[in-house]
Amino acid sequence: MNPLWIHVTEVTGVCTGSAPMAAGMGFVVEDGSLRVPGAHPICLFALQSLLPLLPAKERRIEEDPTEDWMWRVHAVQCPDPKGRVVWRIDPCVPDHVPTAYRRLPEPCAGDLLIEVEEVRGKCTSGMHPGGRLLARGSSLYIPEPFCLYALAAVLPLLPAVQRPLPEDDWLNRENRVICPDPAGNVVLGLHRVP
Question: What pLDDT, on a 0 to 100 scale, did the predictor assign at position 191?
Answer without folding.
Answer: 92
